[in-house]
Amino acid sequence: MDPQHPDKRDPKQYIDLGHSKAENHLKTQVALYEKRKQYDASTTNVLRAFFWTNLFGFFYHYLKSRFGRKAPYQFYPANGDNGIYPLITGQDTVAIALLSDWATDTVESDQVAYVVSTYDPDYTIHLGDVYFVGTPREVADNFTDANASWHYGRHGSLALAGNHEMYSNGKAYFNELLPAMRIRKGDEVATQQAGFFCLENEHWRIIGLDTGYTSTNRPFLEVIFKPDCSFRDEQLAWLRNVVRLGDPTDTRGIILLSHHPYFSSFRDDHPVIGRQLREIMGEAARPVLWFWGHEHRLLFYDQFGFPDGIRAWGRCVGHGGMPVEISEPNRGNLGQLRLYDRRVRERIRGMPVGYNGFALLKLQGTSLLVDYIDQNNVVVVSEEWTVDRQTGGLAVQTLSVRDGIKRYEPVANKDA
Ligand SMILES: [Fe+2]
Ligand SMILES: [Fe+2]
Fold this sequence. Notes:
Layout: H1 21-39, H2 43-67, E1 84-86, E2 94-99, H3 107-119, E3 123-126, H4 136-144, E4 156-159, H5 163-166, H6 171-180, E5 182-185, E6 188-191, E7 197-200, E8 204-208, H7 221-224, H8 233-241, E9 253-258, H9 271-281, E10 288-292, E11 298-304, E12 312-317, E13 337-341, E14 346-348, E15 351-353, E16 357-364, E17 367-374, E18 379-387, E19 394-401, E20 405-407
Parallel strand pairs: 1-7, 2-3, 3-4, 8-9, 9-10, 10-12
Antiparallel strand pairs: 2-16, 5-6, 7-8, 11-12, 11-13, 13-20, 14-15, 16-17, 17-18, 18-19
The chain binds fe (ii) ion (FE2) (2 copies).
């Protein structure tokens, strides 16, 4: 615990965090225990708190989530909402902040949220992972309590689910977080009804995709049906029939958001999601800009796609609130990694840790400026995208790259 910020979680708790439900549930209980301990430090109470919070709490919550049911999947239409929200009009620029893996309730996540607030964006979107397991308390600490630091956009906020929300079966994600996510829809204010959505204007469509719900499965079933983060049928039907992603006459620029990466030079690829999109987009399939998180780093990939999937420029912005990993890429065979913020900010438990931050998108007509801003309000990379309205094709120009950002050279790409 950081004595200067006793009500915040210590980043040490997050170093080397694994992906098992058991470990994450245990960490949630330890964090609760740490908080209780500081308010009542007598030996008997510390011991009692330890047993009740850590051991009893762990087994109770872990077993409940392990063998309990997932929250029911929510999809459109729901309460008269089809999940398509027109972006605000009547201003030159529409600003959207993207934060991923941010909800850690640390000094660092507060700092990132503060920097976001200084830009007063029209929309703010969380790309998933509420730590450790997305309990109601954890949702409240990060998003809904009076002193929670999530910055709500002027015209709305939306949230995708990551794997961590699903470690508690998504219950607090659907029941607590989504009702807190509000978005202006014309003269009305809607609350988010499902784990996917589309924001759009004359030139751009920003489509939030749910990969979290299918990232976990029940015990034993996990062995046979390995969770693959694929899109469920309800979401596919929505993409096909409501968003009409396969409409070749719609030449707006497509920006995708998801928690899990389509491809990675570090960890698992998720080729199935690119394949599912390719099936829907058919003739209309053209390279897209795709922001994702899950890996706690800031990465820029060249355009890439698996042979039967869509092609995308990948931007990993999973550096929102977790200790930022700055290891060497270990799956470099894809050869599409171009930039990686590997600047060392500090060492935690002997591990070098990088800078947290977020992406700020500024839509101006057919142009899209993206600034990648760190927790100290330094613009690390800046790029400009343009959409060709004849074809829907995207082009990118890198405007600036701060010193210290590691560049990777293209290598022969046998998968492309
Ligand atoms: Fe994460
Ligand atoms: Fe994740």
